[in-house]
Write a structure and sequence with these properties.
Layout (H helix, E strand, L loop, with lengths): L1 E6 L6 H15 L3 E7 L2 H9 L5 E3 L9 H12 L3 E5 H7 L6 E6 L13 E4 L2 H9 L7 E3 L22 E5 L8 H8 L6 E5 L5 H10 L6 E5 L4 H7 L2 E4 L8 H9 L3 E4 L2 H6 L7 E3 L4 H13 L1 H19 L1 H15 L2
Helix pairs in contact: 6-11, 8-9, 9-12, 12-13
């Protein structure tokens, strides 16, 4: 099947990474995939290395008068059976055509951007319920989860701070991620180090906060890392402290690596995690409950190991490449009829 995959996202991000993984996996399974992306030499290089031939566009704001006609020309030339647009900006630029237009959402974006879509895909059941509550019919709304890499055999990262248990957090350094709450929760945990891998606008503020709270010697801002599996393998515990997290790819990655998880009850983790079975859930913004959950698992390694094993089983059954790719291919074949 001829499938256009349209992404106008940022250089880094969970949706952007899954876009690449899904495009490559569909191509590997024999589908004819054309990625149409925002200009990004590194993303284009990774897609080319996998055997794809991406086309790049500006995908700018209101003054960008060229992307829409250029994208329309590329789509007409490729003649996809299905065009999948990822998030709002890409969706706004997709013109009407003979293709089936699927809007794929990984968050609660304004649905006015998707009014011309034939179908909507959400990567959580909560998102799909929200589509339907906002007037979209059941037959045109679909739940398809993400898959993440299998880190089961990854080697632990080397050169990380040692001497204490390692708590790991991953994600963009943004207020939504609640890393400030996590740093505050670290204060009474005198026996633990906190490693945060990511980059973003809150980096300097988080560094200052660690200094003000007297934990700067135990907080390590690692910057953007491309070795999430190795970091998770080296961690004693993964912590997702988000205020807002529509899905939580990071939880799936921790499960993949067999790393025990403590997470706040943000939208995605609350849907994913069975509290006490494959992870622990705590209220958002509650540094004391977050600290207590971390201590509980650090002091009970057998319980932490059981949670990690259950998470690994969930990953293999629901969020590994094979089951998710099969679901996507079935969906695409069905809507293309």
């Amino acid at each position: 099947m001829r499938i256009a995959q349209i992404m106008a996202g940022a250089h880094h991000g969970g949706a952007e990474l899954f876009f690449e993984r899904l495009s490559i996996a569909l191509h590997r399974e024999g589908e004819n995939v054309l990625p149409l992306i925002r200009r990004d030499a590194e993303r284009a290089g990774r897609l080319r290395e996998a055997g794809l031939a991406p086309l790049q566009f500006r995908f700018g704001g209101p003054l960008d008068l060229l992307t829409r006609p250029l994208l329309a020309r590329a789509l007409r030339g490729f003649a996809p059976r299905v065009a999948v647009s990822w998030m709002s900006r890409a969706t706004d630029h997709v013109p009407p055509g003979p293709w089936v237009h699927v809007g794929r959402l990984g968050g609660y974006y304004p649905l006015r951007h998707y009014r011309r879509c034939d179908h909507l895909v959400g990567n959580t059941k909560g998102l799909v319920a929200w589509f339907r509550a906002n007037g979209w019919p059941e037959a045109r709304t679909h739940f398809l989860p993400n898959f993440v890499a299998d880190y089961g055999d990854a080697a632990p990262a080397e050169g990380l701070p040692g001497g204490r248990p390692r708590l790991l957090a991953l994600g963009r350094l943004h207020a939504d991620k609640g890393f400030d709450v996590l740093i505050r929760a670290l204060v009474p945990l005198r026996g633990a180090n906190l490693l945060i891998a990511g980059e973003g606008p809150e980096g300097a503020a988080l560094g200052r906060l660690a200094g003000e709270l007297g934990v700067a010697d135990r907080v390590f801002l690692l910057g953007w890392r491309g070795d999430a599996g190795a970091l998770l393998k080296a961690a004693d515990l993964f912590v997702c402290s988000s205020r807002s997290e529509p899905l939580g790819n990071v939880v799936l990655e921790a499960w993949s690596a067999g790393c025990p998880v403590v997470a706040t009850e943000a939208e995605g983790p609350r849907e994913l995690i069975a509290d006490g079975t494959d992870g622990l859930l705590v209220p958002r913004e509650d540094k004391a409950r977050l600290a207590a959950a971390i201590v509980a698992l650090l002091e009970e390694p057998e319980r932490a190991a059981a949670l990690a094993a259950a998470g690994r089983r969930r990953f293999l059954a629901e969020f590994a490449e094979a089951p998710v790719l099969a679901a996507w291919r079935h969906f695409l074949a069905t809507v293309a009829k």
